[in-house]
Amino acid sequence: MVPHQVFISTRGGSWTMSRISKDGYPWDMIFHTRFKSMLQDVLPRIVVKWMRNQQMNRWFSHENYALEPQNKNLMKESIVNDELPSHILRGAIKVKSKVRELTETSAIFEDGTVEEDIDVIVFATGYTPSFPFLEDSLVKVENNMVSLFKYMFPPHHEKPTLACIGLIQPLGSIFPTVELQARWATRVFKGE
């Protein structure tokens, strides 16, 4: 079944970027460099914020697509999607304001608009990490943050026999980070 119309509603907007950046390189190879990290440490905060906004709007103007984050300076996780802007442009996806209310078959948005005959709603609101299968004192979660030594090992565990892999938000692809975590965990488990 092909949907008649898809809507996207965001509470505060979101930076959207292409996987491909300058000269066809992956965006993280261009966006996260030692030089740019050094600039962030040296330059005044206002200049760094301006540079980030310029970088994020290089592919397309987020304001034109109603995706501009309300707090532009908060660098939360971006959406990496090559197709979203073109789908919005051709009308396959319509950007809506924050959902105010849901009824049995419709959505009412903060701007007063109503969309009827909604078949499916997908909530992408994030997640809360929890470990109900472990003792409460082993892995602590406070304010949606997991307290782990080097983002992997429970600090209060007597022996290093448990590692949590992938509970990290890297700058770029998570897979290389997870692979390095797995390699390190196996070396720790082997006593190396």
Topology summary:
Layout: E1 6-9, E2 16-17, H1 27-31, H2 34-42, H3 45-56, E3 79-80, H4 84-89, E4 93-96, E5 99-102, E6 107-109, E7 114-115, E8 140-142, E9 145-147, H5 174-189
Parallel strand pairs: 1-4, 2-3
Antiparallel strand pairs: 5-6, 6-7, 8-9
Write a concise synopsis of the structure shown.
The protein is built from five helices and nine strands; from the N terminus they run E-E-H-H-H-E-H-E-E-E-E-E-E-H. The protein is α/β, with parallel strands linked by helices and 192 residues long. The protein folds into two domains: 6-115, no CATH class; 140-189, no CATH class.
- Globular, elongated, flat, extended or rod-shaped: what is the shape? globular
Span between termini = 54 Å
Could you give the order of the helices and strands?
EEHHHEHEEEEEEH
Radius of gyration: 21 Å
How many strand units? 9
Uncertain runs are none
Mean of pLDDT: 84
Q: Treating each run of at least 4 consecutive H or I residues as one helix, how many helices?
A: 5
How would you describe this structure to a colleague?
Its EC number is 1.-.-.-. It is a single-pass membrane protein. A hairpin with a 2-residue loop joins β8 and β9. This protein starts with 5 loop residues before the first strand and ends with a helix. It is 25% helix and 14% strand. The chain folds into two domains: 110 residues, no CATH class; 50 residues, no CATH class. The longest helix has 16 residues. With 192 residues, the protein is of the alpha/beta class. The chain has a three-stranded antiparallel sheet, with no helix packed on it. A two-stranded parallel sheet has the order 1-4. It has a two-stranded parallel ribbon with strand order 2-3.
